[in-house]
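Appendix C: a fully annotated inverse folding record. The material below is reproduced so that readers can follow the format used throughout the book. The structure is listed first as tokens, followed by the designed sequence.
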């Protein structure tokens, strides 16, 4: 059974490993590392913005969730490649919806890099609607929203 809990400082290393393992396949399509591979997750964990999914005391996935005034930003979701394709991402997205509702928010937003083409079909299968595409700093992104 998958348990989703707030990340602790001691989870920072495994969170970074999951992110690195999950995003490395995209590097050959990109001209720079994706933003999640560059973030300071120790700070995000300290701010209460990171959740981990574990089974049998092993962290298998993570979420970056940032509450905004009118929505919850799903900043990142990653599942260890060793357990991808087993429904863990779906469970993390379901938790995201539940967390947003618990915060009194009725919308979840996210963005993805346009070269991560798998995400362009994955998120709509889970209720997200593409709202727009834009250049955000050095990244070309697709933005999605889901009303709860």
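Designed amino acids, in order:
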């Amino acid at each position: 059974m998958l348990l989703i809990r707030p990340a602790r400082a001691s989870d920072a290393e495994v969170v970074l490993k999951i992110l690195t393992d999950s995003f490395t396949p995209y590097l050959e399509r990109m001209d720079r590392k994706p933003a999640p591979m560059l973030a300071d997750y120790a700070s995000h964990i300290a701010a209460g913005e990171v959740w981990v999914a574990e089974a049998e005391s092993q962290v298998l996935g993570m979420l970056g969730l940032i509450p905004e005034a009118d929505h919850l930003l799903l900043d990142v979701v990653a599942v260890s490649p060793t357990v991808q394709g087993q429904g863990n991402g779906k469970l993390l997205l379901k938790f995201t919806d539940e967390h947003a509702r618990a915060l009194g928010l009725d919308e979840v937003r996210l963005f993805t890099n346009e070269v991560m083409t798998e995400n362009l079909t994955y998120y709509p299968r889970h209720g997200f609607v593409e709202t727009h595409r834009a250049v955000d700093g050095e990244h070309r992104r697709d933005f999605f929203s889901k009303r709860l």
